[in-house]
Amino acid sequence: MSAPTFSKPSPAAAVVAESTWRALASIRHEHLLREMFGSVAMAQAAARAVQADGLALPEWLEVREPPEIELPPRLARVEGSDRDTILLALHLHAPMTLLEGKALLEKAKLSFIKSMSTVALIVQAYQTGQIRAAKPLLVALERKGHEMPPPEQMAALLAALDRLQ
Fold first, then answer.
1. Contact assessment for residue 110 and residue 29, using Cβ atoms and an 8 Å cutoff
2. Is 20 exposed, middle or buried (0-12, 13-18, 19+ CB in 10 A)?
3. What is the pLDDT of residues 41-85, one digit of tens each?
4. Per residue in 81-106, pLDDT tens?
5. Is 140 helix (H, G, I), strand (E, B) or coil?
6. Which candidate, 70, 77, 68, 74, places its Cα nearest to that of 111?
7. Cβ–Cβ contacts within 10 Å for residue 27, how many?
8. Which of helix, strand or coil describes residue 142?
9. How far is Cα 108 from Cα 156, in angstroms, rounded to an integer?
10. How far is the C-alpha of 32 from the C-alpha of 160, rounded, in Å?
11. Which of 55, 84, 93, 154 would you call most buried, defined as having the most Cβ atoms within 10 angstroms of its Cβ?
12. Architecture of domain 14-164
């Protein structure tokens, strides 16, 4: 009798929210998702909303309908495409969920959902050499009206990035 063979499971996809996709698209850096995570998924409701506004979705982005499962109590009131994003992340056991909004990120993290915002993604991309500079992208996000850290935190972040160069 031969020994059983085990195939390595394919890595779970990172899950991206509509708001994160919009933020990255506004600075033309959606490609960072694929470069940093390899496999990336988006909830169907989020994809429809993005496409309704004329934003294209690449072939490498997997669009999926999440199953209706029970959300952790702190996330039970989340609605819209953010709800579907979290449902999909839980269903896929996503290694990372990309969300926007301080309150939503805090609730997700307190519910043991590994998550980060566009700002954190850009900083991580810079630290890992995926991009050459983070500051211009962060400034562009701020100019385009995306939710940013409070001014004192943003100033500290930009100063820290300057010291890293």
1. no
2. buried
3. 999 999 999 999 999 999 999 999 999 999 999 999 999 999 999
4. 999 999 999 999 999 999 999 999 99
5. helix
6. 74
7. 19
8. helix
9. 25
10. 21
11. 84
12. 3-Layer(aba) Sandwich (3.40)
